[in-house]
Every structure is written in C-alpha cells, then in structure tokens.
C-alpha cells in the first residue's frame, strides 16, 4: 500500500474547518471508515507516513460533502494546500524562482511526500509545463487533480498568470502515465 506524508491529510481537515467550520471538519471525519477516522482522531504528525488511501478518501469525501461530486474540489484543495503547507524557508523559492525551478525542486522532493511513484516535469515550450506522474502504486484522479491545483497555485505564487490548467492523461483511464499540463504568462 502506498503512503503519503501526514501534512497532506492534515491540510484537508484544516480546509474543511476553515471553509465549513468545526461542523464541516466533524462531517468529513464522520464520512470516513472507522479505521481511517480512528487514525485521524489520534495524533497524526505532519512528517509521519499515513496510508495514501486515507488521503484519497478525504479528497473524495470532501468533494462529495462540500463540492459538486465531480472531484473539482480536489483541485481547489490542492491549490489551497500549496500555500498552507509551504514551509517558510521555501517561500523564497516562490518569490524568486521560476515555475520550472519550482517544479524541478518538487520532482526532487517527491519521495519526501510519497513513498511511491515519481514526478517528471517537462517544458515543451516557454511558459508551459507538463507534469508526468509515473508509477504511483494506487493512482486516483483525486490525486491528479490535487497535484494540478497545487501546480497552478505554485505558478501564481511565483508571479505567473495561469492560462491553461488541465489533466491531459490519467492512468485511471488507461494511459501509461498521469499527465498535467499548465501554461502561463
């Protein structure tokens, strides 16, 4: 089973509370399977490994409870988490780095956030990136959309204005790799 860092699940709970109050956080917790809920009601550390399935369940259930049920809220939560989970030290990269510099750093740090898969940023043209997610053990569209939201907000935080933000391929639909495409001015 794949794992991700606790910060990923903690930001989803925080998103629910900030945008829907304590009742929203409670609803999201109650929507989980008992074992998942018990894990979160314990003490999850931001840098601890947690099951990737828990991250997916939080995204899917939050979208069902607070979104439109089409997983689009996953992109919104990914964008929100780009700012909220960013350590102060890395904010300087956003202020002075280019989007491609940031995505290059993200690729190198992938294994610090996930114990499965890897990220490959490609730049086929100026102000365009294709983020390829390879070999993630349990691919899920909620994850792809979350990464897409994070990437879009990362571009904005580094001074770019998004033009295109789309998921072009996904392993859940038979593609060999998940691919996200973003362009900016």
Lay out the secondary structure:
Blueprint: E1 3-5, H1 6-30, H2 34-41, E2 49-51, H3 52-66, H4 72-84, H5 88-96, H6 99-113, E3 118-122, E4 128-134, H7 141-157, E5 162-169, E6 178-184
Antiparallel strand pairs: 1-2, 3-4, 4-6, 5-6
Helix pairs in contact: 1-3, 1-4, 3-4, 4-7
Polypeptide structure, described:
The protein is of the alpha+beta class and 185 residues long. The chain folds into 2 domains: 3-70, no CATH class; 80-184, H-NOX domain, CATH 3.90.1520.10. The protein is built from 7 helices and 6 strands, in the order E-H-H-E-H-H-H-H-E-E-H-E-E. It has helices at 6-30, 34-41, 52-66, 72-84, 88-96, 99-113, 141-157, and strands at residues 3-5, 49-51, 118-122, 128-134, 162-169, 178-184. The protein has a 4-stranded antiparallel sheet, with helices on one face. Strands 1-2 form a two-stranded antiparallel ribbon. The longest helix is centred in the first third of the chain and has 25 residues, at 6-30. The model has no long low-confidence stretch (mean pLDDT 94).
């Amino acid at each position: 089973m794949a794992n991700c860092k606790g910060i990923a699940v903690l930001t989803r709970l925080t998103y629910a509370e900030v945008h829907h109050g304590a009742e929203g956080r409670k609803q999201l917790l109650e929507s989980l399977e008992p074992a998942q809920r018990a894990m979160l009601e314990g003490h999850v550390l931001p840098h601890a490994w947690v099951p990737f399935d828990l991250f997916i369940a939080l995204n899917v259930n939050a979208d069902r409870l607070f979104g439109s049920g089409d997983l689009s809220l996953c992109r919104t939560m990914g964008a929100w988490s780009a700012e909220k989970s960013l350590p102060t030290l890395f904010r300087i990269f956003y202020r002075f780095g280019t989007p491609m510099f940031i995505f290059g750093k993200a690729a190198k740090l992938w294994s610090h956030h996930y114990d499965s898969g890897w990220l490959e940023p490609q730049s086929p043209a100026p102000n365009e990136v294709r983020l390829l997610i390879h070999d993630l053990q349990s691919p899920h569209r909620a994850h792809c959309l979350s990464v897409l939201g994070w990437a879009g907000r990362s571009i904005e935080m580094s001074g770019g204005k998004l033009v295109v933000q789309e998921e072009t391929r996904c392993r859940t639909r038979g593609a060999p790799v998940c691919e996200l495409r973003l362009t900016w001015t």
